[in-house]
Amino acid sequence: MVAIAEKPREKRKIKRVSTPMPKQKPGIRRHNFSEVALGYTEEQAVAEAERCLQCPEPQCVSGCPVEIQIPAFIKLIKERKFEDAAKEVKKKNSLPAICGRVCPQEEQCQQQCVMGKAGDAISIGGLERFVADYEMEKGIKLPRKQRPTGRKVAVVGGGPAGLTAAANLASLGHEVVIFEALHKPGGVLVYGIPEFRLPKKIVAAEADYVQKLGVTLKPNALIGKLFTIAELFESGCDAIFIGTGAGLPRFLRLQGENLGGVYSANEFLIRVNLMKSYEFPEHDTPIRIGSKVAVIGGGNVAMDSARSALRLGAEQVSIIYRRSREEMPARREEIENAEEEGVIFKLLTNPKRFFGDEKGWVKQMECIEMRLGEPDESGRRRPIPLEGSEFLMDVDTVIIAVGRNPNPIIQRTTEGLKTTKRDTIIVDERTMQTSIAGVYAGGDIVTGEATVISAMGAGKAAAEAIHSYLMRKK
Amino acid sequence: MKLMYEIVLKKELAPRIKLFKVFSPEIAAKALPGQFVILILDEEGERIPLTIADYDSTEGTITFAFNEVGKTTMQLGCLDEGSRIPNIAGPLGNPSEIRRFGHVLCVGGGVMIAPLLLQVKALRKAGNKVTTVIGARKEDLLIFEEEMKEASHESYIATDDGSKGFRGLDFINELLDTQQYNRAIVMGPVFTMKTVSEMTRSFGVPTIVTLTPIMVDGMGMCGVCRVTVKGETKFACIDGPEFDGHQVDFEELVKRQRTFLPEERMSTLLWEKLGGGCHSRKA
Lengths: 474, 283
Description:
The complex is a heterodimer. Chain A is built from 17 helices and 16 strands. Chain A has helices at residues 26-29, 42-50, 70-78, 82-90, 96-102, 109-112, 124-138, 160-171, 188-191, 200-212, 229-234, 265-274, 300-311, 332-341, 409-413, 444-447, 452-472, and strands at 152-156, 175-179, 216-218, 239-242, 248-249, 262-264, 292-296, 316-320, 344-346, 349-356, 362-375, 381-385, 391-394, 397-400, 404-405, 439-441. In chain A, the strands form 4 sheets. In chain A, strands 3-2-1-4-16 form a 5-stranded parallel β-sheet. A 5-stranded parallel β-sheet of chain A has the order 6-14-7-8-9. In chain A, strands 10, 11, 12 and 13 form a 4-stranded antiparallel β-sheet that branches. In chain A, β11 and β12 (381-385) form a beta hairpin. In chain A, α2 packs across α3, α3 (70-78) crosses α7 and α5 (96-102) runs antiparallel to α7 (124-138). The longest helix of chain A is centred in the last third of the chain and has 21 residues, at 452-472. By secondary structure, chain B is of the alpha/beta class. Chain B folds into 2 domains: 7-92, Elongation Factor Tu (Ef-tu), domain 3, CATH 2.40.30.10; 96-210, Rossmann fold, CATH 3.40.50.80. Chain B has helices spanning 25-30, 71-78, 113-125, 145-151, 171-178, 190-203, 236-239, 250-257, 261-273, and strands at 7-14, 17-23, 36-40, 48-51, 54-56, 61-67, 87-92, 103-109, 129-136, 154-159, 166-167, 183-187, 207-210, 226-229, 232-235, 242-244. Chain A binds chain B through residues 181-183, 191, 219-222, 225-227, 247-249, 251, 253, 257-258, 260, 263-264, 266-267, 270-271, 275-276, 279-286, 288, 359-360, 407-409, and chain B through 26-27, 30, 40, 44-47, 71-72, 87-92, 216-217, 219-224, 226, 228, 233, 238, 252, 255-256, 258-260, 263-264, 266-267, 270.
C-alpha cells in the first residue's frame, strides 16, 4: 500500500470586500459636470477580477439581459489580457462602455453573484467599464465582416435598443440604416442621462463603433413624418425595427404647472445634456435655475435632475416623493450619490398646486403629507394623503420627473400597428414581431419606461428574430 | 450637384426679414401647409422652429422666412446662397386643414405673412373665396404685399402706425360685420392672434391660430411648448401648431414665450460684442 501523503490543501483566501471604484469627492463633484465615478486602474481591475470564483455554472450570466460570458471576460482580466477581455464582452454587447456605467448591475448579474452571499458581489459593471475604456483608449478593433446578405433593415430610433439591433444586424451581414429623429445618435443616452454619469464622448464613441460596423446613420429623420413605415418598405427595406422609446413627458395636471420655472424632467435634461446648456452662453440653448429647486419623483430621472440642478448652481435641491425611501425606484447608488452631494429628501410628500408671481414665475408649492396604505397593483404600498397636513414650500424651480410615456408618432401614423391603451406597441413576446409582418419592436416603446440594458436586450433579441425572418424570406 | 440643406436662394423681404429657399428634397416631398422645420446651425447651436412658407417637390426645395431677432436668427441671416445649414428636421407638426369652407378670412402679421401666403394659395385652390389682411408695424416691414393681393379675392393692409392701409386692426370688425365668413385663419404675433380671435368670437366665425411657443426638440419630448387650450394642456409641436383661437389661453402663451428673454438678450449681445455679424462670419 502506498501511503498518499496528505498535501495540506492550499487555502484560498476569500476577499469579501470588493475593490472600491475611485470617485470624485462629493464636495467637489457637486460643482462640476465631469464624471463622478473615475473607473478602475489596471491594478484595481486585476485585484477585483481575482475575487471571481470562476463558478462552473455561473449564475451571473443568467442575470445579464444580453448574456455576456462574464466569468470568461473576468478571467482574461485576471490574466491581464485586457483587449481580449473587451473582445469577449463585445461578442454579446456592442455598447459596453455605456452598460458598464448605467446598467443596474446590482439587480442583474451582480445580484446573482455567489460571492454576494458571503460579502460583496464582484463589481462586474466596474470591470465591464474598465475593459471597454481600455479598448477605447488603445483603439477599437473591428470584428471581421460577414458576407453581405443583400437584405436591408431600417432601424427606427438610435437609442440603446436601436443601436444594439443595428450593430447585431450589421454583424450578420445585413445593410442597416438607423433613422434618428434628433441630430445626434444615442436617444436617452444623449438627451436623458447626464454627462457626470455617462460622458457624451463615450456615447459618441460607441455610436461611432456601430457605424464602423457598417451601419448608416440618418439623423434629423422623424419616422412617421419624414417617411412612414409603409414608405420605408416601398424604398426597399426588407424588415423594420422600431425602437422609438419612451420620451413623452408626463405631467401632474396640477394647477400652476404651466408657470415659468416649471420644467418637465425631459425638458430640463434635454437642455442640459443634449443641448449642453450648462455651457451657456458658449452653447446657445439657455437654462435658468433658481436657488430653491424641487424635483418631483423618486426615480433615476429625478436623481439625475436633482444632481444636475446642484451642478448648475442651485442652493437647495429637494426631492419630493410621495412614498418612502424603500419604494423609490431609483438605483441605491444614485440615491446615495445624490444624498452625499447634498440633495434633500422630502419623502411621503406630494405637491398639490403651484403658485406664481406677477410675471408668471413659480414661487411657491403647496404640498400634502402622505402615509402608506396597502400595496397597490405595482406591489408598492399605496400613498394616501393625510388630510389637513398641507403646507407651503418656497420654490423658484420645479422639475417634474414622474415618468415618461411612449413616443406616439409612429403609432399615430402607421395603419394596422396594434398598440395598448398606454400607447405601447404590441409584439409577439417570442418573435418580437408587431401586428405588421416584417415590423419588429423593442425597448421602452414596447415595455414602457424601463432600463437601458433591457432595451438593449430587446434590440439584440429582435435582431436575431429579424435575421431568421430575413433568412427564411425568399 | 446641390448639397443637402444648401441655401439655393436668399432674399431680403424687408429690413431684418429674410427668406431662404433650401435644397431638401425629402422634406419637400412630404411638407404640407401648416408644418414647420427645426434648424441647428452648428455644434453649439440651439434648435429653432420655423414655419414652412413654401415647398416644391419637383425642384426639391423648401422655403422659410425669419425675423432676425436673436443670435441664432442673426447668424442664420449671415449665411449666403451656396452654403449649407447643417441640420434640418421636418416636416414637423400637423398640416393645416385645407378644404372648401366657403369664405375664409386670412389675417397675417409680420414674418408669418410668408407661411400665410402658402395657406391662402392652398385655400383658394380648394375652392374658397379668400379675403386677406396683412399687417406690420410700419409700411417698410410689410412683406408679400403684391403676392398676397394676387392670391386673394380681396386684400387689405394694416399698419400699427397707419403708414400704409388701415391703422391697427379695428377695421376687421367692419369686415366681419359686412360679410359672411365661414372660417378665419390668423398667423402672426400673439397680440394679433388674440385680438382677431376676440373679434371673430363675437361673430361666431371659427378661427384657427398658429402658435409659436418656445420649442426644443419639436417632437413631443420636452413639453416646453405646452399651451392651454380649452383648459387642457396641449403640446404645440405634436398636437398643433394650429389650434382653435377661441380656446387658447393667450395670456399664458405670452408669459411662456418670455421665459428666457434675459438669456436670449444676453446671448445676442455677446454675439454682437464678440465680433458677431456677417462681416466676421462668412459661411
